[in-house]
Amino acid sequence: MRGRGLLPVLLLLGGGCHKAPGPSPSPPPSLSPRPNVLLITIDTLRADHLGFFGYTRATSPALDRFGSTALAFDNAFTYWPKTRGSMVVLLTGTTPSTNGYSRSHPVLFPFNTTLASVLAKSGYTTAAIVDNSNIAAANGYSLGFGTYRQTWLEEGLKTEAARGEAITEGARGFLSHPPASPFFLWLHYVNPHAPYTPPPPFDKGFLDKEAEGGPVLPVVSDFHRGIHKEWAEAAPGHRNLGYFVAEYDGEIATSDHEVGEVLDALRASGVEDRTVVVVLSDHGESLGEHDYYFDHGEDVFRPCLRIPFFLRVPGLSPTRRTDLASTLDLVPTILDAVKVSFPPGLAGRSLLEPPEPHRHLFAQNDRDLAAGFDERFALVMTPEGTRERYALYDTVKDPGEITDVGSLHPEEFRVRRRELEEYLDRREREWSQTLRLTEGQKLAPPEARSCEEMKALGYLPASQKCR
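-> structure tokens emitted (467 positions)
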């Protein structure tokens, strides 16, 4: 038994594995070990493209089955609709005004307390296998993990499909020999992030009549009013909207298959009944809404904000919930489920039988847009020069958030504007304290492989030079 805790770690090792500094703490002796935690995040996944939430295409059989066994949140939203900022929020349970994330410093600073670091101090073996160079160890995202495997750095994994399979295989190896101590394993799949190039058989799985329809899109240099030129190059001969939505769905099915394999491996491991499992996305994707195509993060409308959020806790009955849930709630919810004390300063709350559900949620992005919303109304603030423009949307009657109804609901508009302004004022005051912690921090340029991967994902221009 002496070497048993090392085996799952060795199974994770690969060309892109980062070993966190310092020894992992020994688990405290206990007659009743704490539950394990398996966190699965899926990049760029809209909730409304899963069968569980009413989508007609069969994109997500594994996630649909899992959702039926879990706490499932119909109204779950990301706080930050871009991967780097969203993952900082997910891993710390704090807002950028306290964790230091910003457009000029898009990293996870080492002064933060992360979910992994809290669990490591409580005796957990912590490990991650991830795909998406935005969450590189060099950017701080490995904080608290004993091992951190970065699949895009591995020479033999040239495609997203290969890296997705490697994540699944790594998880299967880990789960087949789980450590003696409780574990926290994080898996991040980059699909269905654009460009949408699902592998067979998923590349043709949804090329139905609907895939032949929709407007023909012009090729453009950004993500508005047409298809980004690099996404167009990845799909020669195709320009209609229906085709790209079908391929987006194919990428969902690709990740769904991989997640299903991991859940099967957990079931065969013998530790499923002692494992908390969470599956969610970091943000959604705009598929043409508001003339914004195949990208995310530039606005704070629901296609980019609404996400799937499933949580299965041993001994807890499956329930479908309609109350609001945020990515800020992930850290307190997991710590509550495994009975580990919360670190100070968390901005969310546990979703396990909350004493008082969220009355409303907030969201922000890299462009200084902000939103406050509940199950019906959404107020969006857009900076315009030295002023701000506010628009109120009734998302029940107008799910596309097209018509500003502020003049029809003046009192609703007034109250929600005041609440959003007060919320942003609090965040601004927090920033004045946090900025002192970020002073002197220097950002390292991305490694060559990470740089090329970021260009492929559209985060860097094709002309960017990589070292």
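Residues 241-269 form the longest helix (29 residues).
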